[in-house]
Amino acid sequence: MNPPPTQEETGARFAAFVEVFVGKSKNLPKAFEYIVADYINHNPAARNGSESAWSILSPFWDGMQHTLLQSTIRGNMSWVNYKAGGFGEIVDRFRWEAGCIAEHWDQGEKYPRS
Predict the structure, then answer these.
(1) Which SUPFAM superfamilies match (predicted)?
(2) What are the pLDDT digits (tens) for 74-89?
(3) DSSP 3-state assignment of 111?
(4) 7-105: what fold?
(5) pTM to 2 decimals?
(6) pLDDT digits 0-9 by tens, 93-104
């Protein structure tokens, strides 16, 4: 986004992303509107770029049961903690840049305390 959004606007975008990613309004194509095409993915099973993440998630995501446990954003980092079907509890960490997700981690991530 240009000009880059304020921290408050990024927080609102994060909340909207969470809602369409794992919330009651789950809609994976809409969630991917918040992810830059060349985002960095630290999952060893995925390549960088939103196309790689899409090819992994899209075949099963919408049919999978998700339960949001908690989410938070601090500065340019956000965390989403949820239960996903047969995968169990997951913590995804995202780095935001200019109002969009630019980087992702999900291996051994812990939800931040206080």
Answers:
(1) NTF2-like
(2) 999 999 999 999 889 9
(3) coil
(4) Nuclear Transport Factor 2; Chain: A, (3.10.450)
(5) 0.93
(6) 999 999 999 999
